[in-house]
Give the backbone structure.
Amino acid sequence: MKGTFLLAGGQLGPIARTDTRASVVKRLMALMHRAHAAGARLIVFPELALTTFFPRWYMPDQAEVDAFFETEMPNAAVQPLFDLAAKLGIGFYLGYAEKTVQGGRTRRFNTAILVDTKGRIVGKYRKIHLPGHAEPVPSYPWQHLEKRYFEVGDLGFPVWRTMGGILGMAICNDRRWPETFRVMGLQGVELVMLGYNTPAMNRMGGEAPHLRMVHHTLSIQSGAYQNGTYVCAVAKAGMEEGCLMMGGSAIVSPAGEIMAQAASLEDELILAPIDLDACQFNKTTVFNFAEHRRIEHYALITSRTGAEPPPPGDPDSEI
Ligand code: ING
């Protein structure tokens, strides 16, 4: 039945800086084979799935940074994955670093593509919420230089009619911002696919490590529930170049329930049966946007970027 299919998440364990694209593509193909053997029609891979998470390093030499980028997609290294997808009739989401010339200028984005069951690229998304900082901070045990290496995505949060439903994409930090899911929710999205690379703890230790998983599941479960959409979030996990990356890849139902979750920090397949029509319950009742939203009261959401608290109160009003 249209919109009913088995969905797979293809979590990756660590990718070493020296690992070749070919070796990673082999791992992705092995996960795709397993997904197909289980009957899956779509598999979601992580963010920046072809290389190690290079924004953890400050590299002053642009040529060194560019070695982590793809200038074409597909390209020779990734073509076997596209060919396998077409052969097996399985679609996929793939995150990678995109370097392209646009308007006579070289542009670099943290990108994800959606490839259909015939191996055709049907959608592209460029990461909008870039966490971290643009300049290296020497005192940090590892950097997070996405603001240095990537531009803010210029494609918005589109959705596509494919796989018998309405599918959308996001990347990693995007999942922490409710606007990401709501903008796609306002386009009727029924499945949001996203990959992530999330260190298992705060580098400055300002937060109990278990909260990483709490915030991850809180973000994807609320995004799913509040917009009546499935969410499939897939990690690059494990000890990667000395930085422990969290796992917790998960598939969440439109009711906000976790349907499947990874148990390891390695290459692991998670599976869940998807019925995109199940999104309609929330979309036509609790979160019937047309019935219940009051946009005349939401202006600050798009007119104000940073918080602006009110002026100080009356001193004797303190408790
Ligand atoms: N990684 C992390 C993420 O948003 C982060 C960065 C972790 C930001 C924890 C805030 C808190 O999951 C990427 N790649 O965005």
Remarks:
- The mean pLDDT is 97.
